[in-house]
Amino acid sequence: MPSPTPVLRSAAFKSNYGPKYTFQPHVGTITPKSLFRFGVKAGAFGGVALFAVIFLTSGIPKIQDDILKKVPFLKNSYDRSVPASDSPF
Predict the structure, then answer these.
(1) C-alpha 38 chain-centroid distance
(2) What is the pLDDT along the chain (89 residues), one digit of tens a residue?
(3) Handedness of CA 36, 37, 40, 45 (dihedral sign)
(4) Which of 6, 9, 39, 86 reaches 20 to 30 Å from 61, CA-CA?
């Protein structure tokens, strides 16, 4: 009856200057580093898209009243009050 192969201890020389391999957690091919990079890029594109939507729709009175007049530093920009002396009625 053959005996099982004994477990060999790795007594080989390991250089201090060689690569240090460690386990990198992942799900499929998605690592925490790639997920963070994707999140930063997605946030940047989302911010630009939000700015574009607000800029392109800022002329709509409903958006001015519901959104833009509630932002503190934009409130005075969208205040279109007409003085009584300029009112035709």
Answers:
(1) 7
(2) 666 666 556 667 778 898 888 888 999 999 999 999 999 999 999 999 999 999 999 889 899 889 888 988 888 887 777 777 887 77
(3) negative
(4) 86
Give SS3 for 30.
strand
Asked whether 68 and 78 are in contact (CB, 8 A), the reply is yes
Given a contact cutoff of 8 angstroms between Cβ atoms, the answer to whether 69 and 79 are in contact is yes
**Contacts of 54 by beta carbon, 8 Å cutoff, 6+ apart:** 63, 67, 68
Q: What is the pTM of this model?
A: 0.60
Angle (nearest 5°) at CA 32 between 29 and 33: 95
Q: Which pLDDT tens digit goes with each residue over 2-22? A: 666 665 566 677 788 988 888
Q: What span, in angstroms and rounded, lies between the C-alpha atoms of 62 and 59?
A: 9
Per the DSSP assignment, residues forming a β-bridge with 27 are 30
SS3 at position 24? coil
